[in-house]
Design brief:
The chain has 157 residues and is an alpha+beta fold. It contains five helices and eight strands, in the order H-E-E-E-E-H-E-E-E-E-H-H-H.
Amino acid sequence: MDSNARSTTWYDVTTNHRGKLLEEFLASNQLHIINEESTRTTFQSRRGTSNIDITITNNQMLANINNWQILEEESVSDHNIIKFYITFGSIGTKINNDHDLRYIIKEQQQTEFYEKLYYKIAKTFQTKVKEGREGDIDEELNRLLKGHTDIRNSTRR
């Protein structure tokens, strides 16, 4: 999220009014900031640098997001590229949400979901993902996007 809000909570050097309001909103809605401390900032322009881009998640996804980082790759905007991984726990585990409802994730459903997702991505972007290498799909999409000069056209598929 490009929050245009500054806060030491997400490792900026200062907290402004927008940052304080956003901190309160996130806390009152049980949302969490995934940003990690870095030598790089999420935003840089001729006027300066700051950490105004934040990655937010809820309680259910908090444990599944890891390896958050600001990439050194050049971006087409003043905002640096942020990368993180989403992993899922063991299949068939129970997940509790804030309303004490329980969902059982069945292995057959999860496998079918991922198969359909990988098929749709491969079809949309006209690429192949090798069986058992589905985790490489973000690198493959990144490679495809780097080959295009107009990212808007390559993502409109």
